[in-house]
């Protein structure tokens, strides 16, 4: 229908499990062409449903397409690799960071996520700039760590204080409405049962 075209080269698709069956069928046919590009796809799913269907398959990819692929498994970054990545990111962001601060940031990246640690670089630079320093120190990284929480800490906070949030009140209302409907149905069934017993006595 002309909604998508394939050109020679390298086609990289991240989060490929987000594609639906129509997209997978298009890719499957395109790979049979003489002009087919080198296809590189990435996903972090295990056994998952193919989007838009009820079928489950490895990585959320149809088996006929999966059979055409060479699967490369990846492993988490080591502390040294994480440190190098963060160091390169500091250079790209034009941020001067002390070795101790970089070491702390590396540890944070290992405990939380590399993406979270990279987001902290510029924020820590702004904190250092506010205190008139041209280099990010440990105190700046700690300050940013207390200001911006990662996913794990946020989820833990919600679990501990879920009683204080509005969404919990909505859940309570739903539970109350279900309980009231159950009690109403029980009372109605009780009335019907009483009518049946009265009818039997009259008979």
UniProtKB/TrEMBL annotation:
Transmembrane segments: none
Organism: Trieres chinensis
Boundaries of every RuvB-like AAA-lid domain copy: 85-150
Domain of life: Eukaryota
Enzyme class: hydrolase
Protein family (similarity comment): Belongs to the RuvB family.
Name of this chain's protein: RuvB-like helicase
EC number, UniProt record: 3.6.4.12
């Amino acid at each position: 229908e002309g909604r998508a075209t394939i050109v020679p080269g390298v086609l990289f698709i991240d989060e490929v499990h987000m594609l639906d069956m129509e997209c997978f069928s298009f890719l499957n046919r395109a790979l049979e062409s003489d002009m087919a590009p080198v296809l590189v796809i990435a996903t972090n799913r295990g056994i998952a449903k193919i989007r838009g269907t009820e079928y489950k398959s490895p990585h959320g990819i149809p088996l006929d397409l999966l059979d055409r692929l060479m699967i490369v498994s990846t492993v988490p970054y080591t502390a040294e690799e994480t440190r190098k990545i963060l160091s390169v990111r500091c250079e790209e962001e034009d941020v001067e960071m002390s070795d101790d601060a970089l070491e702390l940031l590396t540890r944070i990246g290992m405990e939380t996520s590399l993406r979270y640690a990279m987001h902290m670089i510029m924020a820590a630079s702004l904190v250092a700039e506010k205190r008139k320093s041209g280099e990010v120190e440990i105190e700046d990284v700690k300050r940013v760590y207390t200001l911006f929480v990662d996913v794990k800490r946020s989820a833990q906070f919600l679990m501990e204080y879920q009683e204080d949030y509005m969404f919990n009140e909505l859940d309570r209302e739903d539970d109350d409405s279900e309980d009231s409907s159950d009690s109403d149905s029980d009372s109605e069934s009780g009335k019907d049962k009483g009518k049946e017993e009265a009818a039997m006595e009259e008979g």
